[in-house]
Design goal:
The protein is 52% helix and 0% strand. The protein has three helices and no strands. The chain starts with a helix and ends with a helix.
């Protein structure tokens, strides 16, 4: 750094160009009480969600699952 630039820094900022400046990291504002990640209220459990499903969903889901297993078993026997 030239002496001219050093003098300019001293006049402009009131300190030498290479003096240490105190700096503190800003606090993280991402985590506030209003974000969903910090929600401490427990949601419904998986058992509760499954219990609330309509009965026809269980029947249709079971039928689709057994049909898929049948197709895979038939393909395995074909080999």
């Amino acid at each position: 750094m030239t002496p001219d630039r050093r003098l300019h820094a001293t006049r402009t900022y009131g300190r030498a160009a290479f003096d240490a400046a105190a700096w503190k990291a800003p606090e993280a504002r991402r985590f506030t009480a209003s974000t969903a990640a910090n929600d401490t209220a427990a949601g419904p459990s998986l058992a509760r969600k499954l219990r609330d499903l309509p009965h026809w969903v269980v029947v249709v889901g079971g039928g689709a699952f057994s049909a898929l297993l049948g197709v895979m078993l038939g393909a395995a026997f074909r080999l």
